[in-house]
Amino acid sequence: DAGITQSPRHKVTETGTPVTLRCHQTENHRYMYWYRQDPGHGLRLIHYSYGVKDTDKGEVSDGYSVSRSKTEDFLLTLESATSSQTSVYFCAISESQTNQPQHFGDGTRLSIL
Amino acid sequence: SQQGEEDPQALSIQEGENATMNCSYKTSINNLQWYRQNSGRGLVHLILIRSNEREKHSGRLRVTLDTSKKSSSLLITASRAADTASYFCAWGNNDMRFGAGTRLTVKP
């Protein structure tokens, strides 16, 4: 399995609080991604990164920000969490172009009450 | 759906039978990928088929692609209980899109 660690694995928080999820990789892959998975929607891309300090928006980026200060770490921040952001969040990595195979972490289950 | 569609949404079969899942997408593609997800885990890449390929095999997996119909199918032959999982197709360039998935149950 690719070395991808997501933390925390589970989190419960309240509406309006800031939340940061972390993705750490040991593969030295250039591309990193954040997705959310909701019933009936498959996975939807939030943001992705194509290098240190290089990021771009995905399909559902509103309400989320990201940062990548090191190759191995990609952070996803919900500045002021809302109940609609309750979801399972997955980090993924890929070695080259964004349409190449991606390797996924095991997800963070986030509940916002 | 803006994402595309997969059908069936759920499929239940006996061990040893074949399972076929279908995917439709809405944009032009360079390639299409299939992933498996076991309950509570992340997705695992299974196979990638390029837009100039019509069929590809990997072990018990066979994938077909019809770019004129914007559709793909995944066939799992001689299924096993361990194949029980959700299966997703994915396509895109900078913005990867995933289908809603097919939940496959293989009964021993």
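qc> Chain A touches chain B at residues 4, 33, 35, 40-45, 48, 56, 58-59, 90, 92, 98-107 (CB under 8 Å).
qc> done
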